[in-house]
Amino acid sequence: MKIKLFLLISFFFTVNSSTDEAVFWGQTGHRATGKIAESYLTRKAKRKIDKILKGQSLAFVSTYGDEIKSDKKYNEFYSWHYVNMKLDEKYADAEKNPKGDLVTGIQKCIEVLKNKNSSEEDRVFYLKMLIHFVGDLHQPMHIGQKEDKGGNTIQVQWFGRGTNLHSVWDTKMIEEWNMSYLELADNAEKLSKKQIEAIEKGTVVDWIDEVHELTNKLYSSVKVGENLKYRYSYEHFGTVRTQLQRGGIRLAKILNDIFD
Questions:
Q1: Is 130 helix (H, G, I), strand (E, B) or coil?
Q2: Cα(23)–Cα(85) distance, integer angstroms
Q3: In this structure, what CATH number is given to the domain that contains residue 83?
């Protein structure tokens, strides 16, 4: 009986690890993006944000959008974490989710925060959600295909353990690198003013289309069932770092536009 129970538990965790992975940047990734954004905020924006968040940092609240997923009263916001697009599509041409997506979610957050008549409660909520969504936007598998749930059903292995392509990009590579969010943020690439301006340029839709081009490449970077190891991390972790940094810079750009 004990052997059967052990096998049953082992089977459960094996299945769970490969089919029920989280669908977002992991906590470390979101916090790194939030921390990077803080260094690009204007003084005026910092003061206003600090007042709304009552001293909590962008890094601290960056995971809020995922923390509330377990509460059914927030179900209406679930689809705001991603965009489903065919690999050869631009956002403008893609079929839109009637429940909304990352673009409509970010636009709603900005609208509430710019509205002087918004309640304090709404300003806190939508600021936290905005910080989270901009991070999500820069995780390439969030701009994935509907049929595989942004890589969640593309089964692979990570150092011999069952997982999926989405989770590899959410958390696995970041965890394998074994750096805190502060270390990731502090070691972000040093960029020139022109490079920063180039990253800031464009709209949310432009950024979606840009990230989707990367997503397209990632779908062909693995084979179903492939055991991904050091080589995959070596080839792609630089992209993870770039996306975290771009997310932070663009988050700061949006927040400065709202609060400066």
A1: helix
A2: 16
A3: 1.10.575.10
**Residue 133 resides in a domain:** yes
Q: What is the 3-state secondary structure (H, E, C) of 60-91?
A: HHCCHHHHHHHCHHHHHHHHHHCCCCCCCCCH
Domain that holds residue 46: 21-259
- Residue 2 CB-density burial (10 A; 0-12 exposed, 13-18 middle, 19+ buried): exposed
For residues 13 and 162, give the distance between their C-alpha atoms in angstroms, rounded to a whole number.
Answer: 10
Q: Whole-model pTM?
A: 0.90
78 falls within a domain? yes
In-domain check, residue 238: yes
Number of structural domains found in the chain: 1
The torsion angles phi and psi of 228, rounded to 5 degrees, stand at: -85, 135
pLDDT digit string (tens) for 124-136?
999 999 999 999 9
